[in-house]
Every structure is written in C-alpha cells, then in structure tokens.
Amino acid sequence: MGGVMATATEMQNNFGKYLAMVQNGQEVIVTRNGKEVGRFVPRKKALSYLTDSLTGILSGRSDIDLAKEERLKEKYENIG
To answer: Which domain holds residue 26?
Structure first.
C-alpha cells in the first residue's frame, strides 16, 4: 500500500487538505520523527483491507454459519 506521506505537524496544520485527499480515494501516511505512526484510508479501502485480511481464517470455508456451528460444537463437546 502506498500513499501520500505527511508529518504529524503537517497533518495538524493542513488537516483539511489531507482529509480532502482521503475523500478523493488517496491514503495518507502520517509520520513522526521519520517513523510511520498511522494511516488515514478511505472507508471503502479500509473495509476491503479488513475483508482481504480475513481471507483464509475459516480454513477455506465460505459458509460462515457452518464454520461457526462446527466451532461451537467442538467447544462444547470438550466441556465436562
């Protein structure tokens, strides 16, 4: 993921400018002392990133209800 870099001071002094960039689909990477401390990403990209990050969590299953049922079954069969 690339984006526009801005120091924390630049971000503070020009927040409206960077907010407009995010609204137009750009990612803004905020740095402090040369190190990345955060990112502002458009909402759609954030949702897409989260969805992509979860891919494979269910071990290849696409039916979340079935996976949930199986995990609950495993959890409660081992009690007692």
So the answer is: 4-77
Angstrom distance (rounded) from CA 14 to CA 30: 12
Q: Give the Cα separation of 39 and 29 in Å (integer).
A: 4
Q: What is the pTM of this model?
A: 0.56
Q: Which tokens go with 17?
A: 């400018």
Give the CA distances from residue 68 to residues 7, 17, 26, 37, in Å, rounded to whole numbers and listed in that order: 43, 44, 36, 35
Number of domains the chain is built from:
1
Each residue's pLDDT tens digit, 18-75: 999 999 999 999 999 999 999 999 887 776 666 666 665 655 555 777 777 887 887 7
Between CA 11 and CA 30 the distance in angstroms is 7
Give Cα separations from 22 to 5, 13, 80 (angstroms): 12, 16, 52
The CATH number given to whatever domain includes residue 28 is 3.40.1620.10
